[in-house]
Amino acid sequence: VDSPHTTVEPPVFSPSNDVKPTLRSIYVNEGPEAFAKAVRDHEGLLVMDTTWRDAHQSLLATRLRTYDILKVAKATNIGLRNAYSLENWGGATFDVCMRFLRECPWDRLEQMREQVPDIPFQMLLRGANAVGYTSYPDNLVHEFCKTAVNHGMDVFRVFDSLNYLENMRLGIDAVGEAGGIIEGTVCFTSNLSSSRYNLEYYVDFVQKLVDCGIHVLAIKDMAGLLTPGDAKKLIGTLRKEFPTLPIHLHTHDTAGTGIATYLAAYEAGADVVDCAIDSMSGTTSQPSLGALMHSVPDNLSLNTGHVHELNSYWEETRKFYAPFESGQKSGSADVYVHEMPGGQYTNLMFQSGQLGLASQWSDVKKAYADANELLGDIVKVTPSSKVCGDLAQFMVANGLSKEDVLEQAETLSFPNSVIEYFQGYLGIPPHGFPEPLRTRITQNKPVFEGRPGAEMDPYDFLAKEKMLKEKWSNAAGHPIRDVDVLSHAMYPAVFEDFMLKTNEFGKVSMLDTPTFLTGMKIGEELAIQLETGKSLIVKLLGVGVPNEDGIVDVNFELNGQSRIAHIKDLSVSSTVKERQRALIDVAGSVGAPMPGVVVETKVKKGDKVNAGDPLVLLSAMKMETVVSAPCSGKVLNVEVTSGDQVNAGDLVVEIEEEYDHQEVA
């Protein structure tokens, strides 16, 4: 079938003649402890390939589709047979699958496992936060890990975004109970000369992880802050303190020092490092696998020719995702100032553009460092890095300095993530919450002084499954399964939207990527393979013009038969409402702090409100913000309704301010 879209063919390799058992076969047949021993006994350096997870999260806003992964999966199973693992799940990939790619993350994992039986799979587990941005009931985290193992997951990199041990302990116990490999993680931040995060801090934390029963230690340098000198000192010290513990180092190449750091770490005793295929490496991604192979040619058990051919596939495939490229042309040493994680950098840049802050990206980076100080100089990795990023964007959008935030904290409508951070929803930061800022932001809201999940009721799986099956009983092509209950538990709103789109359009994961991202061209004919031996031939004949309701007739052939689909053109809208702007010097004139969509209005005309009461819930990209009343009084007007699009500064609610008459007199 002729198609104007470019296709990329994957390499084809002959099956391996290597009779040596793979690390995955050791794990499957002998268990996690035998796996860890094999890693420690291995001569030379092992590699985890991040191409299927962190590399595209760091470079392409996590948009890599299952379609392109599965095309090269069989070749990868042969070409990277001797790798420590493939990182391919967890982290931001879970919600992005549903949110933007319209795919089920569980189907993705299962399909990858079918094609890659010989290499361990690795995922990122956010401790008590699982793959979400908040805390969940303990039984939900346990069930999630058990289901992940049953769908083919092997190694769980368990971390906490604040290095909060109690949150990690839950994740460690859940993975252990599920039979997975526990890669306990210490997140690295700042540098070893820091008074807070020094060598003693890391050694002490690792000892606590060992006491929890981890199989492998991961050092997660999520921003690429670990210099070669610090790597030698840190890895060397940990190797002496824990001689039998496998050490796995992760970094990002944001400043360009990644390979040098890895070589120093290897000489000091590291067993495993993280790299990405060359064409998906560098800058905010991981260091280049090819560069590492040529730096230690006798110490990596990988086929150079195979790696180069895999690289050619990804080099061409990456071109499909050009709309999601950050535009970053080189490394940037200012990461040592703002400390932004590599996996967040491109996502935050993309979000800033969507929020109208593209021209202020340098200001966002500076504000990120200020936000970190306001939060208490914390470890920054999802979800704590999201808190820092949300606060930074909020500060830039509203023209706020660090001093302004401290002075106006009680009257500002902070993003939800910031408020929940100070309430303790993520846990307790290593050096506590900064006061009096915490009290001024949380005001009368409840706060946690320990692990949040410990105070939560168990998740009712049966009730949720019943509710979902009743709600989606007529869903086309996606009946509710146990994994869907888990997806809904992690991301209720995202799952609901995923089901709505799937019910309307069916499964779109079998479309090639150019078609998925840009659509068909008139006259184009496309073959879509639904399953083995079953395919559809679709030819686009013409696209009409929108009628007064914005509906377009799309004419096409389906296996030679004419069809017409009536599609709502979302680019066609009614006359844009010119919104009144909030008055800056009038407290009761409440404006939107950020551009976004109104999710919910919390008040109506005539309501009495107190300062701090919620008025409107806004959402933009992954950030939710509750617009709070800056003063007490009576609601005169609510200028927005659910679904409205607003810009920063648009009037949302008008309040007749209540004055203290004695004070006025």
Outline the structure in words.
By secondary structure, the chain is α/β, with parallel strands linked by helices. The chain is built from 26 helices and 20 strands. The strands form four sheets. It has an eight-stranded parallel beta barrel with strand order 1-2-3-4-5-6-7-8, surrounded by eight helices. A four-stranded antiparallel sheet has the order 9-10-11-12, with no helix packed on it. Helix 10 (199-211) links the parallel strand 5 (181-187) and strand 6. The termini are far apart.
Précis, in short:
This protein has 665 residues and is of the alpha/beta class.
Describe the biggest sheet?
A: 8 strands, parallel, barrel
Return the structural class: alpha/beta
Coarse morphology: globular
Q: Helical element count?
A: 26
**N- and C-termini, Cα separation:** 83 Å
Instruction: Look at the structure and give the mean pLDDT.
Output: 92
Uncertain parts: 661-665
Measured by DSSP, the beta-strand proportion falls in 15-25%
**Number of beta strands:** 20
Rg over alpha carbons: 26 Å
Helix % is 25-40%
| Largest sheet strand order | 1-2-3-4-5-6-7-8
